[in-house]
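Because discrete structure vocabularies remain unfamiliar, we reproduce here a specimen of the format, pairing a chain with its fold in token form:
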Amino acid sequence: MNGEWSMITGSDNPHRMTTGRSGLVACLTCRKASLYHAAMAISHVHRALCLIAAPVFLLYCGVVAQADEAMKSPIVQEPRTLVVALDGTGQYRSIQEAIDHAASGDTIRIKAGEYPEDVTIHSKHRLRLVGDGVDKVKILGRNRVGAFHIGKWPYGATEVGISGLTIQEHGGLAMGIFNGHALVLRELKINGMLFGQQVQDVRIENCVIGGSETTGIQLADSQALLVGNFIHDNDHGVTVAGKSDVRLERNVITRSLFEGVVVTDSARAVLLSNTIVKNGGGVAFLGTSRSDVSGNIVGLNKVGFVVGASSTTNSSYNAVFNSEENYLRAGSPNVPAPELKADSDLTVDPRFADPGQDDFRLRSDTPLTRVGGFAYLGALAPVDESR
């Protein structure tokens, strides 16, 4: 249908419009075609799209925000227990393979057997290795010096715990720990040297360490606590060197060819309530080392304490009972120095239960109980004869 109507765009500019069959609007005044209907259609479509787009846009924004938050929050994996068994009953047959696949927080359970492999833990955080027991799990090594390494230059490891297994010496070294932090070695048997360099916050507890042709435990530029260990049959028992800061507490150190403990260079050491017996020498303080020494039994050695001219020792309430000399000044040769004896030190027989069988508990008639605030001197509590 055709129609005719007027549109006034201004008092001095009247236009009369008509609608043709094409649907377009024509101006009768200027005779030009108009896209009026097309414009109106576009306007309606625009309004509809706006009504649809608004909630869609809000939904999109919410999804993006959630995705952004998810990207900011790390994915937390639940800790797992990975089982290693030579007979194939676990996920892995190799300890190293399990370590390589372990994530932060995982525990690796090692079943009984002798594992002829080199084991290395590095670039790992919060990892535990638990063996079925020192008499059941043994790591033998294969091609490398040291059957077990923690850390690998320049990579370290943090919050790693190892327990319940035996580590066998290979190539002159049983275990090396390098550039690590917060390491716990507990209830291990280490046949050979344990060497640590540039490690911090290391705890070595209730381990049996022996059989090294050099040193049982050697620490360089490290910070460590040694507590409750049995360290035996080495050339030297424990050597603390470099800029180390080490505390030895309630350890039994015996049958060393030379000194049970050597503190040297600029190291700092605390020796508290240890039993250092049946060694070539007791304790040597050398270099510019600084040490606090209290509550120890240093007896049944050839020599007790050897003190270097530049070292500093603060000594109190130690029991000394050695076959040749109790106190020496370091030199060539060493010189007897009875003046080094602290007023509170005791020169008496400790009266061990059975030193021939390495039973270094104190008998009930020992003079080393209730001394200077200590319930007893040395590492081991007296025998309870009431049982």
Q: What stands out?
A: The helical segments are 36-72, 95-101. Residues 3-72 form one domain.
